[in-house]
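Expect chain and fold; see below:
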Amino acid sequence: MRLLYVGLTRARDLLVLTVERERPQPWLHLLNAVWLKPCESPLRLPGRGQLDCRTLNLQPPPPGQRGGGSAEGFWFTGTIFATSRLPAIVTPSAQPPTPQAKVMDVVEFGRRLPLQGRPDDGDLGEAIHAIIAVELLNPGRPDREACTARILKGFGIESAVRLEDVLPMIDRFRVQIESRFHPKSWLVEVPFSLHNSSGQRVLGFIDLLLETADGWIVIDHISFPGPRSSWEAEALSYSGQLSCYRGAVEATGKA
């Protein structure tokens, strides 16, 4: 409304309203001015006044006759196609799978997280992410159950996930990581920003970074309730995202 007000009140001598015939004009209807009808001349104001008004119907000439100007306007010779450009920002989670990626090993560390009902996938994933981050950074805290309960309640899934299920699962996850990678340090929800070889800015958060004697390990944890037969395909669908994370780590000179 503010922009429309400015557009209508700044003209000194002439105001041009461009509309398409037989198409709705929602911006013009914002005025609630039933008297403002572009096809009438003169325009009769709500009071006794009137305004001179001229309606000009413009029709483009055939394509072969375009390119010339007239008193009524200039028509370009043809459609101008913009040069396609890459997106300025690259979102890791939106990247397609990496063709050369493959699943080398499937590791199972106990039963799956039981769910009561059908919680929202997004809320479930965000809650588990938060709980994993807290538990990996601060293992064995005396208030871990109260903290986990707050997180589950904050995401509205306290009736779908039980403390006695989620905490042992994360404990098994930590034991598996320690026995497999022997990390020297743990970094969770690591933000990064870099420019790739195409000049695009890549932004994201790495769920878990492990510093080991052999280099850095990238772990992306996803909540997936699908059957075991779908695990490999689901994992590979995130390979493009993992590739972005690997590029972010290698950009710092780390292996």
